């Protein structure tokens, strides 16, 4: 006789900071635009969530020169936060984004505490479900050092944003922090409801024919499978450091990759660069997670977490 637990369909839904996702697969910021760009290329409504392209209070044109450069097992990007500005996003893009169906997460960037706070106020008054705070941005008032590189700087922006933010707040962590655990704890102590990690890894490329760096800004952000082991290690290490959900990202390209992050303690995953080469990747990853659950008699996504048994 088939056991009732074995015959039950697995439950892919997850809850993060009170927000329910139909499954743990989320489109990562900066790789999925505002959703509509992928219309017809995959079943967008079947995604767990969409983290919109990074937003700033004022519109930005982004960086000049080369913006994307392929590397072995990765992609360097220097986009420069090109976006229409938060008010234009709310008026023009958000209604279409909401109509797609998945949870809507707004990614907020800024160059000062005041800019972050104003952005959080505007987004809190909108219909987005959550805000993801990108603290890898340079603090223009402190010589361009990223907010996310040390605990004090992270706290200096998370606390005022939390004070004006009425939405669940995710803080996106930078892999460049010398003490990422300290940064993570500071974010949680100052009001983060969840953490996402990791952002891109700083790298560069040289055009050997032109004999000069590829990017105008010299360095750029590396994403793709090359950084997955780094991201996985950081999720593993942070799991016992904080008591909020972790969202893992960095080089996830197939269901097996996603399962690794879920086993390491992540509550959900974000998929970025994989969608460039395979627009249907996120649908395939969600289906693969479900298949793995059926094959291994795992009833809920939380059941992947092997940290509870170590």
Q: Whole-number radius of gyration?
A: 19 Å
**Quantity of strands, as a count:** 18
Helix content: 25-40%
CATH homologous superfamily caption = Aldolase class I
What is the average of the pLDDT values? 94
SSE class = alpha/beta
CATH class group? Alpha Beta
Q: Number of helical runs?
A: 9
What's the quick description here?
Helices cover 30% and strands 21% of the residues.
Task: Walk me through this protein's architecture.
The protein has 310 residues and is of the alpha/beta class. The chain has one domain (4-60, 86-201, 224-309): Alpha-Beta Barrel (TIM Barrel), CATH 3.20.20.70. Helix content is 30%, strand content 21%. The chain contains 9 helices and 18 strands. It has helices at residues 4-7, 86-99, 113-124, 151-164, 180-189, 228-238, 255-264, 274-277, 281-295, and strands spanning 14-16, 19-21, 25-27, 49-51, 68-71, 74-77, 103-108, 130-134, 138-139, 145-146, 169-172, 194-197, 201-204, 206-207, 212-213, 219-223, 246-249, 268-271. The strands form 5 sheets. Strands 3-4-7-8-11-12-17-18 form an 8-stranded parallel barrel, surrounded by 5 helices. A hairpin with a 4-residue loop joins strand 14 and strand 15. 46% of the residues are buried.
